[in-house]
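ok so for the tutorial part 2 we go from a plain amino acid sequence to predicted structure tokens. step 1 is just haveing the sequence, like this:
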Amino acid sequence: MRERKVFFTKEQSFLLRGIAIIMVVASHYVVWYGDLVTWESLRYAVSRLGIYGVDIFFVVSGYGLAKVSAKRPVGREFVTGRLRNTYVPYLLLAGLMQLWEGGAWTLKRGLHFLTGYDFWFIQNILVFYLAFFLVFLLLRKNLTRLFALAVLVFLYSYRLAAMDRASFWFVSNLAFVIGVALALYEKHLIRIMNAVWPLQMLFLAVLLFWVAKSGMDIRFTPVENYDKMIPGMAASVVWTLFTVQLAGICTGRFGCLCFLGKISLELYLLHTFLYFEIVRLAGMQNRLLQGMAALAATIGMAWGMHTLLSLFWKRKWGKICV
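step 2 — the prediction. this is what the tokens look like for a chain of 322 residues:
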């Protein structure tokens, strides 16, 4: 592996996001078309890909956030930049979907909409952004910041488990902290992670095999959320570190994956809604054609919305927002 100077270049970040959104979408489609997959273990394995895709999103987000904070102070411009990149696209797309579905707007529905309750990834990332902003605004030493952020993220995850939320709400959350750590201590960690790289990859691959086998076995043994929390987070850490190391060999051009990575937020927000709308409108016609039409519509609308927003931000601030 060629030695790196940074963990993720901009192109590698888009590439990883592209891989992550494919994993998320595939995990949902295998549920919708599960009856067509006769191999139960394969069906279960693909359905779990979404969780590991979220690990990738979180580690890249944490890394990018910390890198930006090193270039500009954590203040008003920093906050508006994060809202512009994530919260505004969410409000627009989720708002349009809510209007399409109709129904009365109650206080509860309004709060769910504003906090991203129906899009758990959005709610989590907003909480992480808030925690990051407070920690980096109030504290000065990187080690203290990282410790405080890890505590806040863990406590938030523990609360989600206590509320009996599904495990995907919390098992990936430490990946965000790992991303921040990679950026804060990049030079030191790169030296460590470049050393004996093949042995590290082999060790992580063995751990991944154990994680995958444990995950496949536990599907027959339902457990409480607290029992899922620590093993789930441990699995997330192993996979996240493996992904970080694997990204080091991704130095070529991956145009299609980078394209999907650039519109990954819009894809995430749209794919479930458009699938069920197309199925509803198409009735009982060919299911595979419905799925292909839903995917095509999702990619087209995601690209269109991303392009419109990018042009708007360029006109307003003189730069493309990606």
